[in-house]
Amino acid sequence: MELTEANPLTAAAGRNESLHRAFQILRLLSKNDSGASVAALSAESGLPRTTVSRLLASLFDVGAVARPGTDRLWVLGPAISELSGSVQHDVALQIVGLSVLESFTAEFDETCMMAVPVAESMATVTEEVKGTHLLGISGTWKGQTVSSLDSGFVRMLLAELPSQKTKTILDKQFDGSAQELRELTESIDGIRLNDYSVVVDTLEAGLSGIGVPVRKSGRLVAMLATYLPTSRFTEDFRIGALSALRQGAETIASR
Known about the structure:
- This protein is of the alpha+beta class.
- It has helices spanning 17-30, 38-45, 49-61, 78-84, 91-108, 152-159, 163-173, 178-194, 235-253, and strands spanning 65-66, 75-76, 112-119, 122-129, 145-146, 197-200, 207-216, 219-229.
- The chain has two domains: 11-76, Orthogonal Bundle (Arc Repressor Mutant, subunit A), CATH 1.10.10; 84-253, 2-Layer Sandwich (Beta-Lactamase).
- The strands form two sheets. The protein has a six-stranded antiparallel beta sheet, sandwiched between helices.
- The longest helix is centred in the C-terminal third of the chain and has 19 residues, at 235-253.
- It starts with 16 loop residues before the first helix and ends with a helix.
């Protein structure tokens, strides 16, 4: 009698129901770029809220989901982008990007980094090359997911969106004064107009940065930026760094 191997994909193989439910939640989040609440996910999936909350907690532990805003909405996390094989984490993009960062730091001796979008207002730093000068914050930014509205990366992401969409996100996530909201909105409008970001003393007192988008076929796939002490962020540096970053963005986009 010939023996046949059992199909590992059949129900008899004892598939884990929690895994199926987790993927159900991930699929729903993939269709909601702005994020979704536990209540909304429960309604769309038909699962109890307690089950959805438990699944989200497990997915959060492995970086598959994130909750970056003050509105408590859930979005897909950086681990999904890393596994997806999407253009954000294309190997060639990373290799060329690292080469561009190394060239920039060799010329300016300042820390330079590349980030990729993982949500409408969230980015992950994928590469970083440190200058010999100390950056305002110790340690490394590589691998960190950034969601702060004070970040030039996040502001560049918001500038890619239609104005009304940006306003909706700011209404949900921003909790500062009316004056601070106006300044933030003007900053994002300036990025739309000039196609680069400048932040001064927002992420940290005494720390400034300038960044540019990297686009392929009109789609933002990455961002380049340098951060340095505000005391060294002169007009001459801004002009030179902007030119070098833009050349770097063109190099990455052409590969």
